[in-house]
Write a structure and sequence with these properties.
The protein is of the alpha/beta class. The chain has eleven helices and eleven strands. It has a six-stranded parallel β-sheet, with helices on both faces. The longest helix is centred in the C-terminal third of the chain and has 54 residues. The protein is globular, with a radius of gyration of 24 Å.
Length: about 400
């Protein structure tokens, strides 16, 4: 009896330790040490069965602010839903599967935040521009569905090429009369996550102790880490600064090459996206001082979209904090990136406008066919041969 009692006590202590670990994980994701958070929000993941979508959904299932997690993908999402539903957190999980636009609308209904990792991953030797044909349609379909299901939701795009995808989404929502620039974000958090990691390795510190803003876009030279503002201060030669900047800019290619055709960054991107979504949630609930860098509609530079530090709030962007103070070298890098960034934005706007035009033509043709069918039916009823 004594042995059984001791065994029970050991089991109870282990269970309590696991519970504390679970609470610590929730606090880690939420970025706070509070253990009492209210689950108020619905978050939808579009592309939940993919390489980013699955680990992202796993992290969001643990977020103490999320009441309902809605998963959508064209295929295989039901199994992801079942798997996640066995995890012992209070977040309710639902899945919606299929290529029919209605399934996406159903998944998005009444969402507070929509996060979009859907799309084709980048492969070795593939440029981000080559992804545009495949992934531009993702932004269009999500934008259309959001206008029908949750026009006031915040939307966070992960889909690459991000510099182009966000302008596509913005143009599409504009055409449907439901665009709010304060509510649309391109997730560039991974660039900051990488910058903090690489700098912490050099400084021999915990990455949690390192802070650095990363501005611009989310590809190649449009990614501008402001090493001059690194905290703690970075002491390095100009060549070392240049090498660090280049590594941060090309870190995605490191992963693509290392996976040798097996995909691009998924786990690190999921971590970064979960962090960003949590910041959006903290802003929604009115927490003060929530600041993140993100690629958004902007007037702080000559580019129509640009990533700078943003203060987040209940309506999305509370305030764009603008360009931080930069060194002369960083100002020069900013100048050099502009043609590429503006070109990517223009390509997105052109892509969206062509799609909008095609959609209007298709809609007009469908209406004409429906009218012709109705006229033919009327003629038949009064004894006139159709098309006579």
């Amino acid at each position: 009896m004594m042995a059984n009692s001791c065994g029970y006590i050991i089991w109870l202590r282990r269970s309590q330790n696991l519970l504390r670990l679970s609470q610590l994980q929730e606090n880690m994701i939420s970025g706070t040490h509070r253990t009492h958070s209210v689950r108020n929000y619905k978050v939808t993941v579009v592309g939940a069965a993919g390489g980013i979508g699955q680990p992202l959904s796993l992290l969001l299932k643990q977020n103490p602010l999320i009441k309902e997690l809605s998963l959508h993908d064209r295929t295989n999402v039901k199994g992801v839903n079942m798997d996640l539903s066995h995890i012992c957190t209070a977040t309710k999980v639902e899945s919606f599967q299929g290529e029919d636009p209605k399934s996406l609308v159903d998944a998005l209904h009444d969402s507070n935040i929509v996060v979009v990792p859907a799309g084709m991953p980048r492969k070795p030797d593939m440029t981000r521009d080559q992804l545009l044909g495949a992934n531009g349609e993702v932004a269009i379909s999500v934008s259309r569905a959001m206008c029908a299901a949750c026009p006031k939701a915040l939307v966070a795009y992960i889909t690459n090429p991000l510099n182009t995808v966000v302008p596509i989404a913005a143009e599409t929502m504009k055409s449907l009369g439901c665009y709010d620039p304060k509510r649309m974000f391109g997730v560039t958090t991974l660039d900051i996550v990488r910058a903090r990691t690489f700098l912490a390795q050099r400084l021999k510190l915990d990455p949690a102790e390192v802070n650095i803003p990363v501005i611009g876009g989310h590809a190649g030279i449009t990614i501008l880490p402001l090493l001059s503002l690194c905290s703690p201060k970075l002491c390095a030669t100009p060549d070392e600064w240049k090498a660090l900047t280049h590594r941060i800019q090309e870190a995605g290619t490191e992963v693509v090459k290392a996976k040798a055709g097996g995909g691009s960054a998924t786990l690190s991107m999921a971590y970064a996206a979960a962090h960003f979504v949590n910041s959006l949630l903290r802003g929604l609930k009115g927490e003060a001082g929530v600041v993140e860098c993100s690629y958004v509609a902007s007037d702080v530079t000559e580019a129509a979209f640009f990533s700078t530090p943003l203060e987040l709030g209940p309506e999305g962007i509370k305030k764009n904090l603008g360009l931080p103070k930069m060194s002369d070298d960083e100002k020069e890098q900013l100048k050099k990136m502009m043609p590429e960034l503006k070109s990517s934005i223009a390509a997105g706007i052109d892509f969206a406008q062509e799609a909008i035009c095609c959609a209007k033509i298709a809609e007009a043709e469908a209406k004409a066919k429906a009218l012709q069918k109705k006229n033919d039916k009327c003629k038949k009823e009064i004894g006139i041969q159709p098309h006579s």
